[in-house]
Amino acid sequence: MTPFTPRATPALGPGSEFDRIRAIWQRLGPHAAEVGDDAAIVHVGGEQLALSCDMAIEGRHFRLDWLHPAELGWRIGASAISDLAAVAAEPIGMLVSVGVPRRLAVEFLPELMAGVGRSAAHTGAVVWGGDLVQSDAVVVDVMVAGRVARPVLRSGALPGDALWVTGRLGGPHEAVAAWLAGREPHAEARARYAKPLPRVREALWLRDHGATALIDVSDGLTGDAGHLAAASGVALAIAAESVPRLPGVEHWESALVGGEEYELLATLPPAFGDEDAGAFAARFALPLTRIGDAAAGQGVRVTRGGQPVELPDAFSHF
Amino acid sequence: MTPFTPRATPALGPGSEFDRIRAIWQRLGPHAAEVGDDAAIVHVGGEQLALSCDMAIEGRHFRLDWLHPAELGWRIGASAISDLAAVAAEPIGMLVSVGVPRRLAVEFLPELMAGVGRSAAHTGAVVWGGDLVQSDAVVVDVMVAGRVARPVLRSGALPGDALWVTGRLGGPHEAVAAWLAGREPHAEARARYAKPLPRVREALWLRDHGATALIDVSDGLTGDAGHLAAASGVALAIAAESVPRLPGVEHWESALVGGEEYELLATLPPAFGDEDAGAFAARFALPLTRIGDAAAGQGVRVTRGGQPVELPDAFSHF
Questions:
Q1: What pTM value is reported for the model?
Q2: What are phi and psi of B71, to 5 degrees?
Q3: Domains of chain A (ranges plus CATH)?
Q4: B113 touches chain A (CB under 8 A)
Q5: How far apart are CA A295 and CA A303, in angstroms?
Q6: How far is CA A273 from the centre of its chain?
Q7: pLDDT of A32-86, one tens digit each?
Q8: Which of A46, B43, B56, B106 is the most buried (most CB within 10 A)?
Q9: Looking at this predicted complex, what is its ipTM?
């Protein structure tokens, strides 16, 4: 989700023209609430609810020939749920708005919705309802709601914290690159693209172990590190060789700039060490890897073999 | 909103192919919650929250040359808010997902969002955030949340109740017909299309005065009467000549099949009479008109001068 609030504006890292437009749009917000991160945090009857939405459009975010409809539905649902994980919220339900051409309504649509429903059920959420309209291109917007006891925002990182990432990166980027080159991606990269697993329980564990800031990797590792650095008012240094890559990912850049990973990027205090990371890995069968540090300053600096590296722009599908 | 739940399936009146597809889709719902009406009703922290979403697509639901961008934003926001009014909920906030072509991002988009924000503020709600993506056609999906103390559903009408409608109908239908014919609509019809007013306070009043069932007129009066009749398991008889028309609306059919009115259709017990309707009219400067009755049976029967009439299909934009 893009937060629209005035407070959130400085939280945007540098980015494309569309990012700058988001910033302008946010400054408009005379009717916007003073909340905002990956999800909006809303107080309802003594509880806090996290709410987020995520819109995906055919030809812009996905192509119909890359995935089975149920895989596509899972992927879009999981992408929205990941925004809840990014604030340490527990999903409870979702609304799904779908536009489809009439020719896709009978076979494609129920499969797509079944996939969305399974992504919700996987994290304990239900599909409450939604809207169904005709459109020329497939468009799916998922709004997710979750309970959040104590949100972890992007803005809490402190100088001296270390930067950690869950999982192994680069799979989705290489899968898309393969499809665009007319090849079938290798199995592990395809699986990471087709069935991302929102790190909901992992986020709660990180919160309970002292995470000071949290964000999900949707715009690419360096892009989201930029958002976190800007929101927290710290500088982040990332050692490229420490970023864990999915087996078979050939290009190390894929792990740094590839988007839509839906892994978590967290800052943790210096006391959090390898033994803690080992406990995380044992609990979730998922690596938790230290990839850098927070210091006074601003921006994201990536080094490789001790030398600064220039990276291509953040991941974009087409 | 289209409810996806198994329970909601019989609540669909007869309709187009897309309605039948919605019904199939709903039956899928192994992960769907047992809630569903115009909005989903969710229990959070001792309160009930009503949630709904409404997707509008350029060329399908609107054209960019009919309205100013801010009017379009208001209209889309109000349309979503009307789903909360339809269950007697009070709006608190919304998420807004928007897809726009790059050429519309700088001037059109902030105006559109300002209109959405004003529609929210008008009913006491704020814009929490949303998503912004590039797309070929403009697409806007609004998710609204509201507090609901005691929802009034579509399903509570009883034989012997009378059927009432707020406002004067036919304006939006005639406005669209005029644009499609290359004419500018007359001012009142255009205003009803450009600035619909969700009947939030009116719905609370109707609830407090005994409304047994409630729905907003989004699919056309007879279409929504069909949904209400199906959900309640009653037959509804409507006298066409009693349906209030906006001044300047030439065709009486416009008031019966024209969609996107965002007025309320309510059933009220027989004890509710003209004096009560007068109190409503005085309070809200809006007529409340008795247009028919509920009886044992099913379906909607429309008469004119005592004779049954056949109506064209429910309103469709293009």
A1: 0.89
A2: -65, -40
A3: 1-36 (no CATH), 41-147 (3.30.1330.10), 154-308 (3.90.650.10)
A4: yes
A5: 15
A6: 24
A7: 444 447 788 888 888 999 999 999 999 999 999 999 999 999 999 999 999 999 9
A8: B56
A9: 0.88
